[in-house]
Amino acid sequence: MAKKKSHYTCQSCGSQSPRWVGRCSGCGEWNTLVEELAETPVEQSSLSTLRDEFRWLPSQGEAIEALDASQDQIEESERLTTGISELDRVLGGGLVPDSFILLGGDPGIGKSTLLLQVIRGLVESDSQNHKKLKVLYVSGEESKNQIRARAQRLGVSGHDQVFLGAETQIEKVFESVKQLQPDILMMDSLQTFSSGVLQSAPGSVSQVREVSARLMTLAKTAGIAIFLVGHVTKEGSIAGPKVVEHMVDTVLYFEGEGAQNFRLLRAVKNRFGSVRELGVFEMSSQGLEQVTNPSSLFMSDREQPIEGTALGSTLEGTRPLMLELQALVAPSPLSLPRRTASGMDSTRISLLAAVIEKHMKLTLGDHDLFFNVAGGLRVSDPACDLAAIASIYSSTKGSPIDSHTLFIGEVGLTGEVRRVSHADIRIEEAQKLGIQRIFLSRSDYQKFHSEFDVELISVGTVTELENLL
Ligand code: TYD
Ligand code: MG
User: Fold this and answer.
1) Ligand 1 lined by 362 (C-beta under 6 Å)
2) Residue 133 falls within a domain, yes or no?
């Protein structure tokens, strides 16, 4: 028998090498190469076999169609409501019937919970969708009883519409799909499924690629909307290669910060809508609850302005997040006053304190300064400088800052306020979260003041900020 050939595949970017090397030549990551048996290329095998497999389905179209026809279909295909308006909005106005959606997030963030609630929403929205939708939820992580128990607790009903499966082999899942012919398929999670045609372990690049390629074909040929859950790696990208993100129509990230209960749902890729939409949820004992007025989360208990707090904006990758910066400045009994900062670099805070002393003519030298980012966040975005300065100033002066005011700007040593990256995305986010007033650098003001409804105020230097406050 001929010896089976093997090669090494980078688990980060998917590039292959005939021999092991410490550093992937494709993406530069270290120690990501894993030996895998040489296998037939995924796309070919799955595409041809799948076309045969799903010949029985009515909605399967011709392999080649005129462009205009398919275009119309995309535009006109009636979107379904998931019954969760925050999710519908992030999806771009509802669920497209044959779309393939990847839902990423840290383990335990609430992805499975969200999907079960989507099932509940879909069942309850029969009349809006003009159709009794059939949903198949397949879990490779939990037993049917576990899922059933959780579903019951979350109030999922609809016994003739909702079906559960506990399965890890993709071929068996396809068998069930064939029998059941669901409208919506939920796969939880990508890393637990594997295909029998490959020998590599579940979660490896080849498996992840094969499973998603097959699911994509299923979505497109059979007209099934598929939600695929994927766990996120430490680095923040969906575990396994980027190839998955290329294959799907929509990539949603579900994220939350530290021990806080709020969860943010964002689209980072969406073929059917904007990627700037943000869905906000709160995790409670009843599952996820939609937060229709998200500013209440970020500015909770803060209807009255409080001295020493100011709102800032940070970018996580390309994703903006608003946060509350808090400062406490008090006369110090010590000869060497304390400077403590959590959530932000303490050197940066000392530097900003020095800028305040120099340019705002405040004396902080005999005061303790405690600085904190609310919610246990850690930020390193220089765009938070201006908000940090505002909070320190507010605490020192004992003058509260209005709770619907946001500060965006980097502050230089000379006290000038400088432009930040992607100010437009931040402003858009702030507008969504109910902010009414934004202080920002002169150049960002000039660039964006005609584009947004929210009031923008230009600040050239921190001295100017003092007068404006
Ligand atoms: P889960 O949906 O299992 O996360 P994922 O699928 O992303 O790994 O969410 C699990 C967490 O959510 C768990 O830590 C408990 C919490 N939770 C609640 O607080 N309330 C609830 O009603 C449910 C169902 C979960
Ligand atoms: Mg889960």
Assistant:
1) no
2) yes
